[in-house]
# Entry
Amino acid sequence: MTAKVLVAVAVLVGFVLPPTAGAQSMPGRTMVKIAPDVYTMTGAGSNAGFVVTDEGVLVFDSDIRNNDLPFIRKVTDKKVIYLFSSHASGDHSTGAWYFREDRPVYIGTRDQIRAYYQVELKEFNERKAQGLPLYKGAELLPPSLGFDGNMTVVFGGLTFQARAEGYGHTSGDMTMYIPQRRVMFMGDLLNNELHPGQAEAGGVFFANIQGTIDILNRIIDRNLPVDTYVPGHGPVHVGRGVQDVIDQRDYFIVMRDEVAKMVMAGRTLDQILKEFKVPQRFAHYDHGRLAGILRLFYNQLIERGL
Ligand SMILES: [Zn+2]
# Structure
């Protein structure tokens, strides 16, 4: 089954709602129900998700560019009790402000908290100082709870297994597995139908290609009973299971191999950027972020030999 067909299935199985009038979210933002009580917001910027329980709502990822609260309010009036951030990138960790009235417990990895104080808060306040309307009156709230390794939250009759996966897309990527719903939120460790971001932070930190491959292999090797792995970017493929994770793992291996062949043939980075042909298997991916990830493959091959 092609990816496009799967998206259509997702729309049929769940449902898609427009945001409420006046809400701050980017055009094209839609909500897809991916399992009972589990929803993904997608279609504009980064993806986010939320889970409704009898005891309240758990939100995974938030972005100042997309106020997802109106989507949640379409489904339930219950309060947001927990907010998680998959990693310290602005498109996944800057929207806590929208949930401030509910005062959720905001949880990230310890790396997330470190990044907040080292980079994120400064960047956020710089943008705010530029007078961008989006940031008017907004604050970047810090996580209130951090962890290394694993954290299990038992909430509303469900088990939320958060895991600090290590240095892949960023220096601290978190996933969240919900066994009773056969769903796993992947953050930017998974991108469907588009090239992954290079995860630049402060001009210093970038995604780690080999680290990402290692993390994806470990997730595949867990053989978890998961129907849907939710990507950080791109459409969610409801019911496609681990194949999405395999495709993402293979993407990094195959693409790096192609870049390495061009390096061996004496091509410079500029030539690679100009001449690179995306292998057939990934040729349908949106090209928007291709140059950034090619630079990363090249630089890490030269610098680290991986
Ligand atoms: Zn992202």
